[in-house]
């Protein structure tokens, strides 16, 4: 544990940020799973979930929870999957 007051504050802030970041990442993983399941059964539902997932990825990138390039790469991947499912 840190001895300096400002270092103690930083440790506490990092704990709070870690909790928020982990919950955001978990939410993204949950919507990813829902989206992939919906692709095989209901393309309309998958399309709705895609827009929600893109929104979650964009907000996570904006808050620097995940890197912007990572969010863009995932969005492109999911768009490709959705497009392939629609064209079947």
Structure overview:
It is built from 3 helices and no strands. By secondary structure, it is mainly α. The protein has a domain at 27-86. It is elongated, with a radius of gyration of 17 Å.
Total beta-strand segments: 0
Which percent range fits the helix content? over 70%
Instruction: Provide the residue-averaged pLDDT.
Output: 95
Catalogue the unreliable spans: none
How much of the sequence lies in strands comes to under 5%
Tell me about the largest β-sheet. Answer: none
Estimated radius of gyration? 17 Å
- Taken in chain order, the helices and strands follow as HHH
- Summed up, the helix count is 3
Give the N-to-C terminal Cα separation: 57 Å
Topology:
Blueprint: H1 5-41, H2 43-62, H3 68-86
Features:
88 residues; mainly alpha; 86% helix
Give a short summary of the structure.
Helices cover 86% and strands 0% of the residues. It has 88 residues and is an all-alpha fold.
């Amino acid at each position: 544990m840190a001895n300096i007051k400002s270092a103690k504050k930083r440790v506490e802030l990092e704990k709070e940020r870690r909790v928020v970041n982990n919950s955001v990442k978990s939410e993204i993983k949950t919507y990813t799973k829902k989206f992939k399941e919906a692709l095989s059964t209901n393309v309309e539902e998958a399309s709705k979930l895609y827009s929600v997932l893109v929104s979650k990825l964009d907000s996570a990138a904006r808050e620097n929870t995940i890197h912007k390039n990572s969010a863009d790469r995932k969005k492109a991947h999911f768009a490709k999957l959705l497009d392939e499912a629609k064209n079947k």
